[in-house]
Amino acid sequence: MEFISGIVFSILSVIAFYIFAKKLLTIKRNIHLGRPVELNDQPIARWKNVFLLALGQKKMFRNIPVALLHLILYVGFIIINIELLEIIIDGIFGTHRFFMPYLGVLYPILINSFEVLAFLVFVACLFFLSRRNIIHVKRLISNDLTGWPKTDANLILVIEIVLMGLFLTMNASDPSANFIISSWIKPALSNLNEHQLHTIEQTAWWIHILGIYAFMNYLPYSKHLHIILAFPNAYYASLEPKGKMHNMVAVQNEVLYAMQPELAPTNAAPPEKFGAKDVMDLSWKNLMDAYSCTECGRCSAACPANSTGKLLSPRKIMMDTRDRLETVGKNIDANGQFVDDGKSLLNDHITIEELRACTTCNACVEECPVSISPMDIIIELRRSLIMEDSNAPSEWNGMFSNIENNFAPWKFAPDDRDAWTKQS
Amino acid sequence: MKVSTMAEMMAAGTKPEVLFWVGCAGSFDQRAQKITKAFATILDKAGVVYAILGKEEACTGDPARRAGNEFMFQMMAYQNIQVMNAYEIKKIVTTCPHCFNTLKNEYPALGGNYDVIHHTQFLQELIENGKIKISDSNEWKGKTITYHDSCYLGRANDIYEAPRKVLESLDVELKEMRRCKSKGLCCGAGGAQMFKEEEKGTSRVNMERADEAIETKADFVASACPFCNTMMTDGIKNRDAEVKTEVLDIAEIIAKAIQ
User: Is the pTM of this model over 0.90?
Assistant: First the structure.
């Protein structure tokens, strides 16, 4: 019996990890649909970001109570997963608490600390659920999240609560075990005989591990993917001052050759597409940003445009990018290569009005706990609007022509530039 | 006032310690001209040998680039870098955070490598080196001032302390707004918003920021950017018709406080 269950469990494990790995590879491929960009310089500074921003969750600590609760979830997630090792070994070999004899006195200490964490995770999840559904924290009930994103967020919290419950029930129904938190549940099971207890323990064990496999495979479709991508995203985060915009070398050269034709190569390649109209025109880092986004909305809460009722929401920019990228990915899966579907990120997902509202203040970039730059995407789409579609508000066209003719964004005579020196 | 241009300096066979990049707002906008003159006065008093480009200066291209017009930006950058490299410019000080950011961060990739500092940093240096002395009986003493962080100085370039250090030298009470430093709220002008109507919304960005400034009950609002200055002045005018909290650039505040 134990032998068969071991085989069944092993097969299920292989399937779960296979599907998960396959989906991760698809995501990796999708990210690499983006424009190449070199982000491998200064490894020390990059690793520092991984430790500070991803592992240390530095940005989260801009709001300490929430940061502490999130830290519990995060530490809980990592530490309790150590116990998964034993759970999986027990499943495959039909053992029972495989590590217990080897670890001796350390074993109950470990399990007790897992239980305490499980309990804290349980409480933190309840608190986070209440922020979304009872307290109604503004950024967590915004229209950006209507529909699936709202369900996704609640689902994650409910699943974690259920998994923690199962883990504790499993320990509580083990007659040979007596741990700190699960012993609170024991009285409720005191009327059951050994066989019934064993059935409960086995059932909780199975639902728990299958739940974890299901959750693992749910990650790539969820905002929860940030638990993985926050790390590479921190590594590849920009190390430049936030005010520095990415230089368009093709345009730089066009201008240079216009001014100094003698420098122009005879076989000058036609210029690339200007700016980004669709996800493939963005950099792979922009696309990794989209998959890393956990839809927390700190960006939009800090956005001056969003907080004054404009259509722009940096969070929505990221969610739109991910949605469009998923669509493009499925298109490639179905057709072998991308077949034009008549849609694009610009216009079909992100409207001109949204893009026009950005003040490039970098508040969204500053706030993001997982090193995303929504502003980068906004700028690339703006570039496409202006340089590919010549689509600018009339005031901007006026500003451009003033700069071109008068060397200032306003219509003043260039000769008056130093007129202030003659004023009293 | 007598301000030398680079051309004049070159003709006289001299070189300035620093180029004062005035910027379009500082050159043409009537309100910002006062900031320019205040800063020039301070430079004179401190005995700094400086020059401007005068008619040879042109827009850095910042608003065009942020609006999405890279061609226009590259044209302006090319022109400015040609001029500055011809004069062998080494050090630039500017009263505009947008010019500061572009000159400092974006021109190097295009061949324009200069040591660029913002005027609040320059003022901090002048005060620390004793080149300018704050009068003990300066008119700001005992007043409360709130400083509005410019996005292009703050988040864009992590300059939060220099403007505050300069203000602290005045023996004033600095009162921070609800959102300040890296959390500071934009005035609404950046990203070429200055040059167009705001998009449809429930409120204006500058009004929201003006409310935060008024909330501090400070006597003055200090700014370090000509665009922030305009936006904050307009916002406060709209919100606070009676009190008329004045918005002053740090250069103007210091110009009135030095011996």
Answer: yes
